[in-house]
Amino acid sequence: MDRESIVKSILKSSQKIESKIKRTYKKIYQSVKWHPSVRNEQMPNFVAFLYDSIISMKTLPSLEQFVNAYMKKYYDKVLPEGIIYHTYVDRTNKAYQSLVRDLHFYFKLKESDLFDHVQLSYAYDIEAKQDLVVTLGDKKLGLQLFDGDDSQTKWKEKQTARRKIILGYPDYYMPLNGTECKPVNIGSQREQFLVYSDHDVKMVYHKLLKASNVENYVEKETYILPNPAIKENNENSIIGKEEKLDDIVHSYIYVGEKNILDDLDKLKRLLQRGVRVEWASPFSTGKRDLPVEIFARFLGNLRLHQWQGARKYNLEIPDGRYNILQGNELQKIGDNTTFNFEQYKTEHASTQKHLIVEAGAGSGKTETMISRLIYLLHTKELTHLEDVVMITFTNEAADHIKLKLLKRLYHLYEITGNIRYIEWSEEVTSIRIMTIPSFAKTVIRDFSADLGLGNDFSIRTLTMERRKIIEEELDKYISKQELNFKTLGAFREYEWREIIDGFWNEMEKKGILYDFLEQIEWGEEPDDKLEHIYYDMIKEMLSNCEKKFNELKLNKNAFTVNDLTQKISEIEKILDIRQLSKPFKYLFVDEFQDTDDVQIKLVNTLTDLIEDAQLFVVGDIKQSIYRFRGANYTAFDVLSEQLGKNNIDRDYRLKKNYRTDSKILEEIEDMFDVWRNDPEQILPKESETGNNRLESTIHHSIYNKSCSFEGVYNTRGYDYASKIWSIYHSMKRDEQDEEEDKPTVLAILVRTNYQAREIRKILEELRNGKGRDIAYDVVTGGSLFSSAAARDLLILFNALNYERDPESYYALYQTPFTSKPFNPAVLLKFEGDRDKICTHKSFNEVEGFTEILAALRIKPTLHAIYQFLANNSFEKVLAAQNMQPHEIEQYRLNLYRILELAGDEAGASITSVHHLRDWLRQQVASNRDEDEMQADVTKYKKLIKVVTVHKAKGLEFDTVFIPYTYMKFEKKTQQEMIVVKEKDKVRAGWKIAGSNDNEFLVESPLYPDLKTKENTENIREEARLLYVALTRAKNRLVVIYNKSNSNRNDRRNWSDLIRLGRGETS
């Protein structure tokens, strides 16, 4: 890469230069026009020195750094007290300003997207005496940039007249302080630094449009910089020259008519050093045709592709070093063979720009990310894995990536015997693979003092405190406004508390906290009295509650998860890379389509802060399914805009699918094409012009019927139990399941937790009847505090709190904490006398109950509870109830997870079982964020997994069954808040409806319009959700949908979308 290209890649954008100048620029005030003993310095000398400084420092040097370094190198013997020294300093100062101004204007011209090409070249500066050259079609213009006014243009013209070459295009003279230019200040108010402006960019564009075409200017010759010659492959064979083999460090591609068996010894040398070999030839040589030592040892790092078209090639590519023409040929080869050019291109991409990779379902994005890391290590672009931050959206995903990276490194060690792979594998734990909230927390901790926080701040839900704030603020507001039951529309205070809490949660999901509340547009104040009361009340309550909540968090030195990313916007104002305890060189972000606007800003801010850091984001806009919590499916576009399109390379798209049988993929892609081309484009397109379909690599079926869409007229009355039983017993284990010794899974995918519970009931009936041999696992989102373990713990805490309450005590008989049956009939003789009932009860029937009552008097509360669970035989009781072994394990894990959360979140406030009971009751009532623990299910040969689509994302299953497609997207709700973020503004609307006994409807002014748009976005979100569900299948897909008698083009449920995609609507 030439010097200019390296400099451009380091500086990246005009914004980077502006940021650096604003932070570091300080004028040198001594100004000396001339001294007879001072020689005239030539500008190319300054250019070379500045460029070398940028490359060595990996950033733009400050004026002070540049001047000091230049003077030290060339004039270290000149006394700093003399006027000669200050003359040299003055000239170096002016050179710095001029060169930085040129670089800044280069980026401004590039970022405008008005020109086909903008050239900044050392050679042009010397030979053509032009600072920049812009091109648009056949028009070209050389720019002469200089400080001064119009009077100095003539002097500049005399300079350019002395050049010895003839250009084919005109000059345009741009004195910074001339009448045409309008410079702007990018320095501080005190230390001004003037540069060319956006106005000047447009002025150049209009000047270029008026210029004549290039050929009209050509007299004798046109000035063109020479291109390096490209040697033919057959004259420069790598595999033919042994000394060249050692130069290859990561990958080697051969495409041609050679048989791999002819070059085994030389290829073995490559493979033994961990180099991956891709060999495309006309021969049908398979891996099993290779010698055993080659096949067995290098499996996975040697990829063979048979293609008759390879005969016309003689192509060798080492380490991804290919030119544009070779890249076009590799694309053709990838289209005709099993070679995946898209993955290869992404893996070997330049580190000079940020990368956005759009990866379709099953396209191997995790594999590509790991290959990218190995490439960076092999090429020494990355020396230590601790310089990598990798952001995922779940802890499970983080663990998965670490495991796959460890496996790859160990495999390379087995191949090569090179100890460096062991050393790198030991560094894997130092990669910061974490969720966005975790990453934000580590960054905030570095700046905690500047934010007025203690370094030991904690992350808590503070649910109980929130509700208390709502109650207090609501009581104050109602008293202050003299409102009552009637004036509040017959809503009681507890109902209003729920309304405010719900609306507040919706605001937080969209990243709207206190500082942003003033920016919300609510619409014009309504005239109707009740509407006006609600309008004022909701606005003020949200503001007051958020303000009080902020005060409480500061006092407790605590944050909620929502605060973490919001705090990043405060850090942006005080960012200083020196305060980052662990800077990074590479930032990988997985599932980027699920980020919200604040998280996008976090990624942008940190990448901008660390000037030589490279960003690698990967995701699939078709799988953006978290809009309900603020995710922005246009995240790629937003990030491109924030970082600047010239700093990002988006030409990476993974389309080859390694998961799904081609018969399934073809059928569902036909549906997706209909959705993409729908007038409302209910499924987004990655490209408006290119092919958006996934391409299957799986062309063998293990089932007679791989894809089945069964349309029925009565989906509600459908016999799902028989269908599940039939599918389960027809499942076949494939080679991968046998090899990895894992269960073959039938996944029943559902939209909601309610649907998952309905399927659980069906499976329980099957297991208690004809299907006693079936094993099933139910996985839903946010269900820890609605689980049986949470319910039973709460019953236990109630009994411990109310020893003289028979209802609480006898409720324990409904839990597995006792094996004794409970017969209510024995209580009839006491005729409701509570004292007699309590005298009758026996604590000994609940194993460990007497002991825990004694322990609570002398031991910490949580310690006593742990002791009870350790001694109680609840697992035996559950086993006797025919509960599956993994469900018993999950129940136990859930119990301990709840106690762990109680210790983490409630902390010191739990001083008694009473406090513990209150905390858990609150979580059971409101917490739907925490997931249940997952037990080990790998011991089964076949398994039914009931899972919501959100929890299934990123997973794959042998067979996917999708029932309940008839259920409507939209639930009828009494209250609804809609918050929409549109660029720099936020609009909000709400509705409040009365109950059946109190029928009325109040809508805020913006609600109707926002609701219309919300309905459209909901349909798109559901289409993306169904896309995720359908693309989880590997070998078989079974879908039951409602085959309507109507030809209406409704979009109320998944059945409607399926009929639309299958052409069954008018």
From TrEMBL:
It catalyses: ATP + H2O = ADP + phosphate + H(+); Couples ATP hydrolysis with the unwinding of duplex DNA by translocating in the 3'-5' direction. InterPro entries: DNA_helicase_UvrD-like_C (IPR014017), DNA_helicase_UvrD/REP (IPR000212), P-loop_NTPase (IPR027417), UvrD-like_ATP-bd (IPR014016). ATP binds at A359, G360, A361, G362, S363, G364, K365, T366. One of its GO terms (molecular function) is ATP binding. Its EC number is 5.6.2.4. Residues 338-661 form the UvrD-like helicase ATP-binding domain. This is DNA 3'-5' helicase. It comes from Bacillus benzoevorans. The lineage of its organism: Bacteria, Bacillati, Bacillota, Bacilli, Bacillales.
